[in-house]
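Researcher: Please predict.
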Amino acid sequence: MTLRVVRPLFAFVAFAGLLSAADPLLMNLLMPDAKVVAGINVEQARNSPFGQFLLSHAPNGNEGFSKLTATTGFDPRRDLSEVLMATMGQPGQQGLVLARGAFDSERILTAATAAGHTVETYNGVNILTGKEDAMTHAVAFLGDSIAIAGDLDSVKGAIDRRANSFTPIDPALAAQVQQLSGSLDAWSVSTVPVAALTHEQMPNTNLNGMLNSDVLKNIQQASGGVKFGAIVQISAQAVANTSQNATALADVIHFLGQMVEANAPAASAAAITSLVQSLSVQTDGSTVKVALAIPEQQLESLVNSAHSAHQQGSAHAPHKKL
């Protein structure tokens, strides 16, 4: 077992759904200067119609994943219930991933030690550590119900805060988290300019040239998420530096919707046209609000169409000669 494998396990929940009512115990572990927070209610998303659809179509995993599950007894598809993630909004920083679930921590640490990895003790808590790209990554467990992952300093900081009886993050950000997590299954909020989080340039295309312009630089704060159900509701909100730039951002979103509709595959063109027509983009001063409602069955159909197109593309792709 390696830390390189542990981090993708938490990333697995990204397509299982994203936290309703953020767990106060996990909130207490966040760094006080957090600027970007996202939540995942894996259990709630897993039990939704779309979550069940994804699980029924998910592959059983490769050999490495199966071996890891057999060795540690941990399967994220079954054992994760909630995930909370945060960073200080600085490019290249790993930050924290906090997870609530069922972890056999002793078994996991024993397997890691047997595989030659380092386990150190900090304030009575065992930490699994490893180095990659000049950064020391760490995983720790508070009992068998909470896992902490991130860079070593961030993990140690979370351990130090475990006895807190209050939420250490900025009260205004905490209020946003409470509002989003109480109404959405999947959510994220950033109180730093979006441009600060995009430290790597996107490929040089006409579309990405537009996105790399001042449109992104003008977004000062952003939030959004998804609510699962018979109708899957997606919402987002962005705050620009001026009302004029908010209008420009709304125009870009409308343009992107038109591009998606114009380039839709024939098999799903009608469904995508319906979705684009249901897209709501409104401006209120310097704030842009976006909403999209997708019938769950229609979303399943789009996923199936995309999967079929991918399989056909793979089947017709030329094979390289050895």
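Model: The chain has two domains: 3-160, 193-315.
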